[in-house]
Amino acid sequence: MTTTTGIRTDLYVEVQQYYARQMRLLDSRDLAAYADTFTEDAVFAHSADREPARTRAGILQDLVEFHRRFETDPMRRRHHFTMLDVVFCDGDEIHTVFYALVVITRPGARSEIRASCVVTDVLVRENGELRNKSRIVEIDT
Amino acid sequence: MTTTTGIRTDLYVEVQQYYARQMRLLDSRDLAAYADTFTEDAVFAHSADREPARTRAGILQDLVEFHRRFETDPMRRRHHFTMLDVVFCDGDEIHTVFYALVVITRPGARSEIRASCVVTDVLVRENGELRNKSRIVEIDT
Amino acid sequence: MTTTTGIRTDLYVEVQQYYARQMRLLDSRDLAAYADTFTEDAVFAHSADREPARTRAGILQDLVEFHRRFETDPMRRRHHFTMLDVVFCDGDEIHTVFYALVVITRPGARSEIRASCVVTDVLVRENGELRNKSRIVEIDT
């Protein structure tokens, strides 16, 4: 087991807080604001059956396309991130791994787990703010 | 995205710990102890079909009434709070937003998600202890 | 409600990070590495229908036996720990309580909650690293 020494407490909490805000943007379907949490040159791979989206503009376009499937499916979606591991920092890059549960609720139906995932992020800081340089989502199948 | 600057690490962790203890009280049906985590003048809105409960005494009475429905339904209930955002502090008030999953287990049945919620809290400190001045629960439907 | 005063922020975050790494080991079926997160004289009680496993070697043997049932059941398992409470520190021992959701995914099927649990740990530090001296898992039934 890798030593936990050297992972800064402040950073760990800042990442938790960043994820809470970032994912509320996506869950409220504010796709432009969610895309804005990625760097200009970011990579976002979120589905095994889609090519990774590249660049912030490309990520936004991909999000808009992907979310068309929800237009006729009025589900409420919540992303729960747990088990955060700030694995290491390499220069300006913060490498994290965590679990994600995607819980959906459709009108008149019980909430259910739509996906169980492992997410690998690389974060960087721009003007003091954290942003995703990459996000790789592996969905359990 | 609002800057994360200025959210104190110590406070974020203290709120996490507070929620863990507070919700274990409710999940163990210690309604009086749970009500005691609210201030004397608190407001607690937890169901769309019920008026918000007001004052600590009123919250306890509401809890007792609400939990009568569980007397004939021996379910075990667990509140999982995730994605904590300590949004801002305004004077003595600490404003938070987070997700809640309510997971229930009935004898002989699989555990299931009973509710997916967004919770908005205002916390204050009394004699050094955090307490809820208000809690607004919005349940996904 | 017990006072939160005196729970050190650094320790709380270190425990969160420790659990993230520890449980990724179990979820990836690296049973030897998971057993190695326990002390030589540790106790691990994880199922009501099994005697607690004792000593690190005994825990590993128990894990191997227990996981045989999964050999013909290709499920992906994820342990989500939430609501961490670092209850108190007693000398070198760190006492924690938290909730655990075990989410499984079988090929071609929806993810589901396999178990909802309350976990009580005693952690100690060996060569600077956290380890479990005991873990008692109570599964909601």
Automatic annotation (TrEMBL), chains A, B, C:
The cross-references to InterPro entries, in alphabetical order and at most eight, read:
NTF2-like_dom_sf, SnoaL-like
Every SnoaL-like domain range:
11-135
Task: Identify the Gene3D superfamilies for this entry.
Answer: 3.10.450.50
In terms of CDD domains, this protein maps to:
NTF2_like
Q: What is this protein's record name?
A: Actinorhodin biosynthesis protein ActVIA
To which species is this protein native? Actinokineospora iranica
